[in-house]
Sequence to fold (326 residues):
Amino acid sequence: MKPGRTISFVLGLVFVLLFAQGVYSQDAEVAKYPNRPINFVVPNPAGGPSDLVMRLLGKEAEKYLGQPVVVVNKPGAALALGVAAVATAKPDGYTIGFAPHSALYVVPHLEKVPYHPLRDLKYIAGISAITMGMIVRHDSPFKTFKDVIAFARQNPKKVSYGDTGTNSMQYIITEQIAKKERVQFLHIPYKGTAEWQTALLGGHVSMGVGQFNYSLLEAGQIRLLLLLKEEKSSEYSETPILKDLGYDIPCPMVFNVVAPKDIPDGIARKLEEAYSKAIREPAFVKRLKEDFREPIAYRSSKELTDYVSHSYGVWEKYLIEMGVKK
Fold:
């Protein structure tokens, strides 16, 4: 064999061996996964509805993963901070998390963030819908959302509302309603639901916009005026949704599990299998229904990926039509 061909042959053989070693190494990692605790990043502060749902789900998932699922709260930046922590983590399956709607469909269109929802995240499973609404304290003079609008027309910036921050989906929706109705609200951003809900109960804001604890509603401490949903809710059938009041605004909101994009397929499948079983555990189904009035609405990895891709495009178009995104 000629010297040139010999060198080429040797280099080719080395390449094949290195490739085979890499494949073997990855297969070995997949086979033993998980062999230590898994960090689950929740972009919301501790104690809020999303945090509680993900903690409950994590406990059920542990049964199938064989390792603890440790919730790590990373609130901030309209919930994008926690999603960025997942997207930029080492793709080994030991950092996964929850990606809220604002961090998927709104913030990336309006701010510079270190991830792209369609390129940097692997969608593992969809769990359930998220019910959000506009709520007031039980003793509020506002009995309906039309009462809020009527008062705001006569009293600019006298109706204050709390939510999870500027550029959150609920902020965009509320401000679009204000624009349509030609009123001015006073926006007061918080890091998460637990904070603005505390502020509402303490009388520091007139209204809260976002998730809410059903227990407070059942106890008569809060009143639900409007649901931020695209379809009527069987649990809150008497409460109007956006379309009932003439607001044609998309609201793609879903609990989910995500991971870094380059996570090995074998590990992604293990996670999908574990979480698809966890959401069907009777204890989780019961708590989700009793505490949050949410039914299970499972989406497979592919179904969730398609849903997010579609919703991302819908909100991009919507933000452009609003004039918020150029």
